[in-house]
Amino acid sequence: MPDMTMDPQMGLTFEQVWAALMELRKEGEETDRRLRETERLLKERSAETDRLLKERSAETDRLLKESGAEFDRRMRKSEKDFNKKFGHLDNRFGELAEHLVVPNIVKKFNALGYHFNDVSKERKFYREDGAIAAEFDILLENGESIVGVEVKSKPAERDIEEHIERLGFLRRRKDELGDKREIRGAIAGAIMPEHVRRATLGAGLYVIEQSGDTVRIEEPEKARGW
Asked: 155 and 193 in contact (C-beta within 8 Å)?
């Protein structure tokens, strides 16, 4: 930079002023260059940051989707395993019904005045096309009455509704055959939830429960007939 010293008694010369302006201009250009470089670097870093965030977001979404799919797969497998085990439990209770419920249920109903002399298990009724229209786990019969029994390990309220439909079908089928015997229904359970017990009795059906090595029958206040 030119010598900018001056005699206090004298002003700046033209050359000195011009040189100072050129130096300021040069410093201004350098400052502008540095600002532009800084702005460029910031843009590059911002773009790189956006790219990284997008990549991480996409990876997170992918992992979440994979985790969700794996969770759904495990849930479906768990549900399938549960249904298989629960179905096996129902089957085992069906076997128990043959060896424990059936012999005792006849005695218990006969004590109520029915005197059944015919007992069948897994009794099926078919439609004209050969499809099964109704199946009764236990069917008790005599010359005047029929009692259809649905056996469940743990009955639910929907079982009551389905059994009522089953009994209605049996009524129609017996009418077609000219069989006018009265039809009644019962729900048997190894575990009988209290709300299901009340609903069963409220529907006019008998409640049959395991009691030790035998069964106990609870009569509805007013037995429903078909």
From this structure: yes
- List the CATH number of the domain containing 146: 3.40.1350.10
Dump pLDDT digits (tens) for 43-94.
777 777 777 777 777 777 777 777 777 766 776 766 666 555 555 555 555 5
Does 5 map to a domain?
A: no
Residue 97 covered by a domain:
yes
- Cα first-last separation, the chain: 119
Note down the domain range covering 147: 91-218
Residue from 96, 223, 90, 78 nearest 148 by CA: 223
C-alpha–C-alpha distance, residues 104 and 121, integer Å: 14
Residue 50's region, left for phi above 0, alpha for psi from -120 to 50, else beta, is alpha
Q: Is residue 125 in some structural domain? A: yes
Number of domains, the chain: 1
Strands 145-152 and 132-141: antiparallel
Overall pTM surpassing 0.70 (yes/no): no
Tell me the C-alpha distance between 183 and 63, whole Å: 59
